[in-house]
Amino acid sequence: MSRNVYCQHLKQDAEGLDFQLYPGELGKRIFDNISKQAWAEWQKKQTMLINEHKLNMMDPAARKFLEEKMEAYLFEGVEPTIEGYVPPKK
Fold first, then answer.
1. Where are its TM segments located (predicted)?
2. Quick one: CA dihedral 76, 35, 40, 28, positive or negative?
């Protein structure tokens, strides 16, 4: 059964995540306030960031960098800067 959340990224009610995908307090915030659609959009950007910056996900600094970008994107609507990527106009 799907659950709806008020997505803080999309600013509308949308289908919520099925389970908490990210650990800790931030993960709980994402589960409670971010839709599947917004999470999927973030996943694409995260992949671009990992590739562009050649991030090693075993490196705590790389994980912290991504977490900051994720939080800014999902909760503050801040587009991450990705070389050569222009977000589609809304």
1. none
2. positive
For the chain of 90 residues, list the mean pLDDT of each consecutive stretch of 10.
93 97 96 98 96 95 96 95 67
The closest alpha carbon to 14, from 25, 22, 6, belongs to: 6
The Cα–Cα gap between 14 and 57 comes to 30
The total of other beta-carbon atoms located within 10 Å of residue 44's CB is: 10
**pTM of the entire predicted model:** 0.88
